[in-house]
Amino acid sequence: MLSDVRYVPTAGALLYHYCSPSTLHAILSNSTLRLSDIREMNDSMEMDWGLEALDRLIEGHAGLPQVLAEKVASVRADVKFDSMCVATCFSTKWDVLSQWRAYADNGSGFAVGFDPECLTDLPINLLEVCYSVDRQDQLIDEFLDSIEADYSRLGDADYDPGPLYEVATEEHPDDATDSDRLIARQVSKIARKVHHATYDLASFKSPAFEEESEVRLVHILKVDREAGDVVSLFSSSAEEDAWVSGRDASLGFRMKGSVPVCCLDIPLPAGAIKEIVIGPRANVSELAIRRMLSTVGHRDVTIRRSLASYR
Predict the structure, then answer these.
(1) Would you say 111 and 277 are in contact if contact means Cβ atoms under 8 Å apart?
(2) Which residues contact 243 (CB under 8 A, 6 or more apart)?
(3) What is the distance between the alpha carbons of residues 105 and 109, in angstroms, rounded to a whole number?
(4) pTM of the predicted structure, to 2 decimals
């Protein structure tokens, strides 16, 4: 994985999801949050911004062995065929006019303030978006240095790329030596390390979006390359009880024009919603919002209005 892209909550900080009135209703009524295929979001360069930077830096990375560069390129190319990144977006800021315009029904919607500590208990990653091209290049270079160091130690029985990247048992030829098996397993782990890192690139965006101050909640789905099925790897019955007890995430599709977009509705932990901000053009009373919150089971939620003068 890339270093320094994980969002680390500070005490009392909330993450704000700007949304339309209908989306607010769905979140509150179902106590779920919808994640969608990141490649079908509004930014036409989603994922590609970071992947293109990776391609560029692989070519220019001094000392990266050709065979390793080819392995990274191969894993990077396969990512979109054997897995899918679904995500939803937050801002660290509660009252940004551009966010109201773009994501909250032109100011008639809401911003839902979530407790990030509650979200980190789920099988997701929170990524803090990086807008600096120099910093993006630095993070990729550091990652390439790390896998170059991994590669230099192939065959070393005392070296393991790490338990985080455990993979399924490899099949080997009958005449494979113990050394062959060790190297094959280490290479597989490095490949998984690259696979994880490619999805960390979802945290890279153009500097043009910096005002959004975005944090992304991402989850990886498995894709069956032969059948084409999309599958979530976690369930509430899993040994670790990955989702909220007794509830599973719901996998499905919605239509964006003529394009089917994969989406995952994830159950929210109790107490995850801490605040509702009423948009600058939303003609609704705080009392009406309070009644809805209480009736559908969300209590101790702060309500306030945007300070933006927008009509």
Answers:
(1) yes
(2) 122, 123, 234, 235, 236, 249, 266, 267
(3) 5
(4) 0.90
